[in-house]
Every structure is written in C-alpha cells, then in structure tokens.
C-alpha cells in the first residue's frame, strides 16, 4: 500500500504538564490549558478539516471537538474522527448528540471491522444513533501499522488536513508510525502548562532517535500562563 497517498497535512497537538503528562492517574482528564491557550487550540481546530482522537479520550472526556470558543463568525468545526476498533463509543455521547441536534458534523468512527456478533450489534446501534462507521484495511495488525490505512481512508473521504489531538496512546502511535513509515507528521504544536502532574499521570515516549532529533524547534510563544511550542520534522 502507498504510505503517502495524497499526503494529508498532519498536525499533532496536545497540552502537557512540565513533567510531560497529558492525563491524570488512569488516563483521567485534567485541565492543563488556560483559557488563552485553549482558544488557540480552538483556532487550530478551525484551520483543519478533521480532528482525530482515540476511543479512550472520546469515552472518558465526552468531548465536543468543536470551535465554540471562537467568535461566531470564525467558528468552523472540523470533521470529528474517533479511532474506535471495538466500537466502544457510547451512542449518547456529545459528538453524536451534537450531530443529531444539527450542531456538529457527523462523527466518523474508524475501525478495521470485526466478525464478532456483538460488534455488529454495536455498529447498528451507533449507526442508528447517527454515527458513521468507516472500515479501514482489516489486515492492519497493530495500532501503529494501521496508521497508513487510517490516513488513506481519511484522504479517500476528502480530508486534506488533520489535527491529531490525543490522547497519549494515539500520539505515541503517530510518533512511532512517523518513525517507521517516514514523514507522516508535518508539525507538532504543544501547549506546556506550568504545573506538575506527578508520576501517576500519563505521558508519551518518542521512539529512539539514534542521536538525530526527529523534530526541531520552529517557534515558541506565550498564551496566558502557558507556553506554546511548534516543532517540525527535521526532514521538512
Ligand atoms: N492533554 C491533552 O491535550 C489531551 C489529553 N487527553 C487525555 O488522554 C486520556 C486518554 O488517553 P489514552 O488512554 O492514551 O487513550 P487514547 O485517547 O489515545 O485512545 C487510545 C485507544 O484508541 C484506540 N485506538 C484505535 N486505533 C488506535 C491507534 N492507531 N493508535 C492508538 N490507539 C488506537 C484503542 O482502543 P481500541 O483498540 O478499543 O480502539 C486505544 O486503546 C483522556 O482521558 C484525555 O483526558 C486526550 C487528548 C488530549
Ligand atoms: N488543549 C487541551 N488542553 C487541555 O488541558 C486538555 N485537557 C485538552 N484535552 C482535549 O480537549 C478535548 C475536549 O474538547 P472539548 O472541550 O469537549 O471540545 C479532550 O477530549 C481532549 O482531546 N486539550
């Protein structure tokens, strides 16, 4: 399979503490960003045509993934995408509710599919509730190796710019896929909040660099109490 079919522009973005944590103990949601940096995150959402999160984030946080913090005339909601192998997303979640209420785009749930009868039952329930289930290459054997198929599926369905918002497991998969398959990520935008979470928080790791940094600094600025840092791949 072509790893870079109509290459999507991919921005990885998230907020982390000074000790590199994105979530609290057991992956619990924590408020890291201040209102100023959160507004920048919403602006970034408005400049991408899709936003992707993992199933745990979609389930734990019940996010809206919209641009409601921007002035009305600047609000442009990205296509919400959830990586949800086992279709665990509750059909009553805000992403589905907002779509049904005409306040959001139809959420796309990406999965490699399953032969399991319960999986097919959950598919019917989610589709009846309003979600769209999209199957990517069922031969994908791991989360990392499924990234190229996921990106092909999004590209085939008209997505050209994608914001990957988390959580840590999804970010880790994208970093590893970038390292394994060549340039997938175009930039990383990290909000660094001046606080510590502690060792029971959840962070991420980058693959071994062998002395060559995979990403280099491009820009830094302050937003309220937070620092926002932009990095790009060394090869870009
Ligand atoms: N600080 C920040 O900016 C952010 C923080 N968060 C926090 O992160 C927490 C959750 O993080 P985490 O537990 O790591 O979970 P994720 O949100 O990263 O979801 C991981 C799950 O997504 C599914 N998945 C499907 N395909 C892939 C793939 N290719 N790569 C990785 N995962 C895949 C898997 O479940 P399955 O196999 O069942 O499909 C996996 O267990 C949330 O509670 C949230 O608060 C989230 C976003 C941003
Ligand atoms: N930028 C940022 N800062 C934080 O402190 C966060 N906890 C997150 N989390 C992400 O934002 C999603 C919530 O989105 P909505 O407000 O519901 O639109 C959450 O699910 C994480 O993806 N992000």
Automatic annotation (TrEMBL):
Where in the sequence is the signal peptide annotated?
none
Could you say which EC number(s) this protein's record lists? 1.1.1.302
Pfam families per the UniProt record, alphabetical: RibD_C (PF01872)
Q: Which reaction does this chain catalyze?
A: 2,5-diamino-6-(1-D-ribitylamino)pyrimidin-4(3H)-one 5'-phosphate + NAD(+) = 2,5-diamino-6-(1-D-ribosylamino)pyrimidin-4(3H)-one 5'-phosphate + NADH + H(+); 2,5-diamino-6-(1-D-ribitylamino)pyrimidin-4(3H)-one 5'-phosphate + NADP(+) = 2,5-diamino-6-(1-D-ribosylamino)pyrimidin-4(3H)-one 5'-phosphate + NADPH + H(+)
One MF term in the entry's GO annotations: 5-amino-6-(5-phosphoribosylamino)uracil reductase activity
Q: Does the keyword DNA repair apply?
A: no
Please indicate if the UniProt record lists Nucleotidyltransferase as a keyword: no
Pathway(s) served: Cofactor biosynthesis; riboflavin biosynthesis
| Domain Bacterial bifunctional deaminase-reductase C-terminal: residue ranges | 10-201
Q: Hey, which family's this protein in?
A: Belongs to the HTP reductase family.
The name of this protein is 2,5-diamino-6-ribosylamino-4(3H)-pyrimidinone 5'-phosphate reductase
**Organism this protein belongs to:** Coprinopsis marcescibilis (Agaric fungus)
């Amino acid at each position: 399979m072509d790893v870079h079919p109509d290459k999507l522009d991919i921005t990885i973005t998230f907020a982390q503490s000074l000790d590199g944590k994105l979530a609290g103990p057991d992956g619990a949601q924590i408020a890291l960003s201040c209102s100023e940096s959160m507004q920048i995150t919403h602006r970034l959402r408005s400049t991408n045509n899709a936003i992707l999160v993992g199933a745990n984030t979609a389930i734990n946080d019940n996010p809206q993934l919209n641009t409601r913090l921007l002035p009305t005339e600047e609000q442009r909601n990205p296509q919400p995408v959830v990586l949800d192998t086992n279709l665990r997303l509750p059909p009553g979640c805000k992403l589905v509710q907002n779509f049904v209420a005409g306040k959001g785009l139809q959420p796309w749930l990406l999965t490699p599919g399953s032969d399991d009868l319960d999986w097919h039952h959950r598919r019917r329930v989610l589709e009846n509730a309003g979600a769209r289930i999209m199957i990517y290459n069922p031969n994908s054997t791991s989360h990392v190796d499924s990234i190229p198929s996921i990106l092909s599926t999004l590209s085939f369905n008209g997505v050209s710019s994608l914001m990957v918002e988390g959580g840590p497991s999804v970010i880790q998969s994208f970093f590893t896929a970038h390292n394994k398959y060549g340039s997938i990520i175009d930039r990383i935008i990290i909000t660094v909040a001046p606080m510590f979470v502690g060792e029971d928080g959840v962070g991420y790791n980058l693959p071994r660099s062998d002395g060559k940094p995979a990403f280099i600094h491009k820009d830094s600025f302050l937003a309220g109490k937070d620092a926002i840092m932009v990095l790009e791949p060394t090869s870009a």
